[in-house]
């Protein structure tokens, strides 16, 4: 059985007790026009490019953009994990990503994988080996023997029951997957005239359809979004949280992928994906503007502290990296005395910048609440 996007292949197991089943092998994404750019898509692409261009411009002039990028990567990690059913708060993602923290979290591997991809992309481009290396970082905390290795067994999503009318999607069989991965590598690295954002949508679809790893494919596919856009010089930093839109529209997200597999309807998928990019760009622009306004307001408050303002300013810079702190760790990190930091923390609490999180006398925690609320959408 064939569609514009690929073919369904019947498998008849040797053992008579096992049911027949279909797998789906996607057709290569060639240079021919898979997607017809109608008026709706043209307008969506124009809007997405404009917003991403604004983000790129902002990233070049904001002094603390490294810190903001780090926070947005954590935010993206939380939503991407939620799509796969792993619930974790933004605060948990912040705590577990700190150096030396031994807690295992769902988002920790995602953050490692994004940072690895950012660091290695200029020298690797998008080889299949590079995908395996990113996957190894993604699954590093799961003690997964399959981490960084393409699967050697069949993965099933649809039932194994033989249905000839219209089979459910199962990814390519391992012996069919090699060719699909070679074609995928060629396509992602080739220079063509396809709009970059359209191509990003097609790459995401193709990777998820090949489903080359035992687990982690969804998260890795979403990591590829940002890395590909960065490699194409559209947005140099990882500032898009596309997973929020995909999580809020999770059912539609999966349905539209299936629509391509079954009927070869690429246009509806690309439009959905570009809408996700638009939403992500608008979200990030709003967050960055709110963070900049908050910083300006906070600095103005700190300037009212007189002699304590110098230490409080150092503490603010620390809070933007770690918005939940304890005095002991902060004093060690800033190389200041415990009493000096304690006084600054108390001053910031009195003027409404910090809030105490617990009633413990020995291990008190304080949070930069307004900052957290902006990044965490008011505790989603």
Compile the SSE list and pairings.
Layout: E1 2-3, E2 6-11, E3 21-26, H1 39-61, H2 65-83, H3 90-96, H4 108-124, H5 128-138, H6 174-189, H7 196-210, H8 217-231, H9 242-248, H10 250-263, H11 266-302, H12 309-321, E4 324-326, H13 327-334, H14 338-350, E5 355-356, E6 365-367, H15 369-375
Antiparallel strand pairs: 1-2, 2-3, 4-6, 5-6
Helix pairs in contact: 1-11, 2-4, 2-9, 4-5, 4-8, 6-7, 7-8, 7-11, 9-11, 10-11, 11-15, 12-14, 13-14
What does this structure look like?
The chain folds into 2 domains: 2-287, Fic-like fold (Orthogonal Bundle); 292-375, Arc Repressor Mutant, subunit A. It has 15 helices and 6 strands. It has helices at residues 39-61, 65-83, 90-96, 108-124, 128-138, 174-189, 196-210, 217-231, 242-248, 250-263, 266-302, 309-321, 327-334, 338-350, 369-375, and strands at residues 2-3, 6-11, 21-26, 324-326, 355-356, 365-367. Strands 1-2-3 form a 3-stranded antiparallel β-sheet. A 3-stranded antiparallel β-sheet has the order 4-6-5. Strand 1 and strand 2 (6-11) form a beta hairpin. Helix 2 (65-83) crosses helix 4 (108-124). The chain is elongated and about 75 Å long.
Task: Please provide a brief summary of the model.
The protein has 380 residues and is mainly alpha-helical. It has helices at residues 39-61, 65-83, 90-96, 108-124, 128-138, 174-189, 196-210, 217-231, 242-248, 250-263, 266-302, 309-321, 327-334, 338-350, 369-375; strands at residues 2-3, 6-11, 21-26, 324-326, 355-356, 365-367.
Q: Count of helices?
A: 15
Strand order of the largest sheet: 1-2-3
- Name of the top-level CATH class of the largest domain: Mainly Alpha
Shape: elongated
**What's the gyration radius in Å?**
24 Å
Q: Provide the CATH architecture of the largest domain.
A: Orthogonal Bundle
| Helix content estimate | 55-70%
Structural class: mainly alpha
What are the secondary-structure elements, in order, as H or E? EEEHHHHHHHHHHHHEHHEEH
| Poorly predicted residue ranges | 99-103
CA distance, first residue to last residue: 44 Å
What is the beta-strand fraction? 5-15%
What is the CATH homology-level superfamily of the largest domain? Answer: Fido-like domain
The chain-level mean pLDDT equals: 89
How many structural domains can be distinguished in the coordinates? 2
CATH fold label of the largest domain: Fic-like fold
The beta-strand count equals 6
The description of the largest β-sheet is: 3 strands, antiparallel
């Amino acid at each position: 059985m064939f569609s514009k996007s690929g073919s369904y292949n019947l498998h008849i197991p040797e053992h008579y007790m096992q049911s027949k089943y279909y797998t789906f092998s996607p057709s290569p994404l060639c240079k021919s026009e898979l997607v017809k750019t109608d008026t709706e898509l043209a307008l969506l692409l124009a809007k997405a490019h404009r917003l991403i261009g604004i983000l790129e411009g902002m990233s070049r002039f904001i002094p603390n953009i490294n810190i903001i990028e780090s926070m947005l990567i954590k935010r993206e990690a939380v939503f991407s994990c939620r799509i796969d059913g792993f619930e974790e708060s933004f605060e948990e993602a912040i705590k577990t990503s700190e150096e030396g923290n031994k807690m295992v979290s769902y988002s920790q591997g995602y953050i490692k994988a994004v940072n690895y991809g950012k660091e290695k992309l200029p020298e690797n481009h998008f080889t299949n080996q590079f995908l395996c290396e990113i996957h190894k970082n993604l699954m590093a905390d799961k003690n997964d023997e399959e981490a960084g290795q393409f699967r050697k067994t069949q993965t099933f999503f649809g039932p194994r029951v033989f249905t000839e009318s219209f089979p459910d999607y199962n990814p390519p069989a391992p012996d069919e997957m090699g060719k699909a991965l070679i074609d995928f590598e060629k396509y992602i690295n080739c220079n063509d005239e396809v709009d970059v954002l359209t191509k990003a949508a097609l790459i995401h679809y193709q990777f998820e359809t090949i489903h080359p790893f035992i687990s982690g494919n969804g998260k890795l596919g979403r990591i590829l979004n940002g890395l590909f856009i960065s490699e194409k010089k559209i947005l140099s930093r990882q500032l898009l949280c596309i997973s929020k839109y995909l999580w809020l529209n999770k059912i539609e997200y999966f349905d539209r992928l299936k629509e391509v597999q079954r009927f070869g309807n690429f246009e509806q998928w690309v439009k959905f994906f570009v809408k996700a990019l638009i939403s992500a760009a608008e979200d990030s622009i709003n967050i960055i503007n709110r963070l900049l306004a908050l910083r300006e307001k906070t600095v103005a408050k700190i300037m009212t502290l007189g002699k304590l303002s110098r230490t409080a300013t150092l503490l603010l810079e620390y809070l933007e990296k770690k918005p939940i702190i304890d005095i002991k760790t902060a004093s060690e990190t800033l190389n200041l005395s415990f009493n000096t930091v304690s006084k600054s923390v108390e001053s910031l609490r009195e003027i409404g910048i910090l809030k105490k999180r617990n009633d413990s006398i020995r291990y008190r925690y304080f949070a930069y609440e307004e900052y957290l609320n902006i990044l965490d959408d008011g505790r989603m």
